[in-house]
Amino acid sequence: MRKIAIVAMLLIVYSHLYAQKGDKITISFDDVSIETALKKLDNLLTETDFSYNSKLPALKEKVTRSFHSMSLDSVLTDVFKGLPLTYKKVGSTIVIINKKKENVNGRQTVSGFVYDKTTGESLIGATISTADSRLGTVTNQYGFYSLTMDEEVTTIAVNYLGYKEEKILTTGKKRLDVKLSQDMNSLHEVVVQSDRASEEKQFAGVVSLTPKEVKQLPLFMGEPDILKAIQLQNGVKTVSDGASFYYVRGGNFDQNLVLMDEAPVYSPSHIMGLVSVINGDAIKNTNFYKGYFPAQYSGRLSSVLDIATKDGNNQSFQLAGGVSTIGARLVAEGPLVKDKVSYMISGRRSWIDKIMKGKNMASPAYYDVNAKLHCKLNANNKLYFSLYQGKDNFASDGTDYRSDWGNTLATVRWSHIFNEKLFVNTSVIYNHFRSFVSFSTTQNSWETEVSEIRLKHQLSYYLNDRNTITAGIKMGRHIFQPGRLKALDIDLGKKQLQSFDLYALHQWHISEPLTLNYGLNLNVTGALGKTELYTLDQNYNIVCTEKNKGGVYKTWFGVEPRVNLQYKFNDQHRLFAAYSRMQQFVQSPYPYQNDFDMLKMWIPVSNNVKPLKNDIFSAGYQYGSKYFSFSLEGYYKRIQNQLDFAPYPDVQSITYEQYLRRGKATSYGLEAGVGYKTNKVNLKIDYCYAKTRVKVPEINNGRAYDAKFDIPHQVNVIASYQFTKRWGISTYWKYSTGKPYTLPVGTQLLNGGRTIVPLYGNIHNARFKDYHRLDAMLTYRHKKIKDKWQGTVNVGVINAYGRTNPVSVSYNYEIMAFKPSTETFYKYLPMLSYNFKF
């Protein structure tokens, strides 16, 4: 018996060595299942692995065969003869699949979501590519992807900035959700993406920012701020310190669309521009468009800032927040039902008003709250509830002046996967903006409001690896209250619009170097409601007044084509060009020179107000390597029907439309940027030359003039250095040409010399002195407390060398001095903050 066992062992060793040596196999199967046969082969061949789905019915079939010195291909072909099984070789792995699952064209589609393994948060912009990087895609704004591959079975690689790469064998699966783990040692790592996946993110004038990237920028006031991060981008300008709004490529502030979970935000900042309205710790991802606009976006001319908030940690409870010189913030998230239902709640409150109380000084204050509930109903259905409430209050001790303004937003969204190629989203969206000023002694107040509700339905169809089609509809009702003046019982009346958009977008990878994205937005907008309609003559005098009883009294049709073309020479060099036509049905012209008044009127289209129209052309070149980057992009814009107020307008008149004047604007510019980045050093230098001219026939004697936000030259320099894992420094320096303003050329005495009235010549005939400022911040990351509590201390100063940059101008008419007396917002502004995560 012992001899028989020894002989058997020698035979096994001999057959094993023989099989490895010449890939010849000697083996027998005696009435065993296919699965058992595969296991015996797996044990025999140590350098080859077998992968299969044990639930395949054909694996239970019995087989009786004997093989002597045969190749593995011959053995498997014989064993699978007459069965619905076949196999594919992927490296050293043999994958067994069912013939019935093969597509007739030899291709298959894998789709699913990419998640953070720790939090369960979907990852936007994660790259999914085949092992050879020939094919690839990125997750959409909801974390969903679909990839059609040439082979039935292959290995896919999934990457996301700051996360470990995950390589997965698909084994013929149609649905494949992927969970990525954070790489704690790669805070500054540059993730190299597949060529095709990189193309998905490369558009003319498009910037994608993650919270991690925002936190690597200089933290204004010591906390991550997405609005300040956008204002650091090339082509984006602010006209002064503390200004509430920003200007993009020659467009007015009202031409920027800010979306938070798909809901429009009419007032995007707190404390006159010091802080954005959304807590940076609550943000998941941000896309900023300033050149090419995908067809699903409409309603604004110059830019779109699309912000997605976190869905909430569905694995465990998590807390993050911070305290700074201006206030405190906190974000809590966690699962209500693990893997199924999660929540996110964030809140912020300033304490400047508490510090300034009783000091006879202006005391601004703000608060905001974000809440989100994410419900995973099943593998193919998700439901989201999102809510935002924010408010500012500005008061001054010893006066009766008080103003407040704020936004309320709500979104309900349902996501559904029909199959591996079709993904659908349906959203109901509500937003409300209100601004209010009061004077208690006179019992007077001025109020403006905007309320909107929308329905949006969008589908994405992933036809194949080269073609993706997105289409959808949007319907909305918009109610505007330009103004109400209580003391004089003046009500400018409600203005109502209804809108309908139909859009489609085709992403087409024509060839390996050439990609084309093109789309079309068709829109219909109608003005309606009970209102008084004024007919104006050529001199803007009212010649007829009639009352509309509530129906639609004016309709506009819009056709907005969008095109983006890219040509990739190789992995480092790329050319692109884009064209977009946009229309806008609400404007906010402003007759005064300061940038801080929250009571800007929002005026919709009417029988006297035409929609804004814009054509923007842009083209550029990009270079990128592991450490260096360079970009050069030029643009040209033509704007029609831009509104401005006539001189000395009565903006509180119920017939304010007769003071509006319509004209054209032209803007062009060149943006250049260089960058250098290593694990320790991050340097970015941007230069922008831009010019914007406005021409309104009834203003400035019909001559063109510089726009209020015309700033020809601007330089941004961002530099940071990481001394150690714990210590780092970041700086930001900005230079720009001074903004224009209108300087009086003389005065006139009225009322027997008792009243002095300034006389003006050409509009914007003077400029403030050039603007420049340096911000610096030192950051210390302390050791984790009990392996859970992470914290950073930030110490810095805004305007480090105390430059007096003017923000407003005033004159002393009595002494006939027309040299302006300028006022500054701040000289030195220290910042101190502590940010934590638990």
Features:
838 residues; mainly beta; 22-stranded antiparallel β-barrel; five-stranded mixed beta sheet; 8% helix; disordered N terminus
Write a concise synopsis of the structure shown:
The chain has 838 residues and is mostly beta strands. 8% of the residues lie in helices and 56% in strands. The chain is elongated and about 120 Å long.
Strand and helix layout:
Elements: H1 2-22, E1 24-33, H2 34-44, E2 49-51, E3 62-71, H3 72-79, E4 85-90, E5 93-98, E6 108-116, E7 127-130, E8 136-138, E9 144-149, E10 155-159, E11 166-169, E12 178-180, H4 195-201, E13 206-209, H5 211-215, H6 226-231, E14 236-237, E15 247-248, E16 256-260, E17 263-264, E18 269-270, E19 275-276, E20 283-289, E21 303-309, E22 318-324, E23 327-337, E24 341-350, H7 352-356, E25 362-378, E26 381-396, E27 401-417, E28 422-439, E29 444-464, E30 467-485, E31 490-491, E32 495-509, E33 514-536, E34 542-568, E35 573-584, E36 586-587, E37 603-604, E38 612-624, E39 628-645, E40 660-677, E41 681-695, E42 705-706, E43 713-722, E44 727-736, E45 740-741, E46 744-750, E47 755-760, E48 766-767, E49 771-781, E50 790-798, E51 806-812, E52 817-824, E53 829-837
Parallel strand pairs: 2-5, 6-12, 16-21
Antiparallel strand pairs: 1-3, 4-5, 6-9, 7-8, 7-10, 10-11, 13-20, 14-15, 16-17, 18-19, 20-21, 22-23, 22-53, 23-24, 24-25, 25-26, 26-27, 27-28, 28-29, 29-30, 30-31, 30-32, 32-33, 33-34, 34-35, 35-38, 36-37, 38-39, 39-40, 40-41, 41-42, 41-43, 43-44, 44-49, 45-48, 46-47, 49-50, 50-53, 51-52
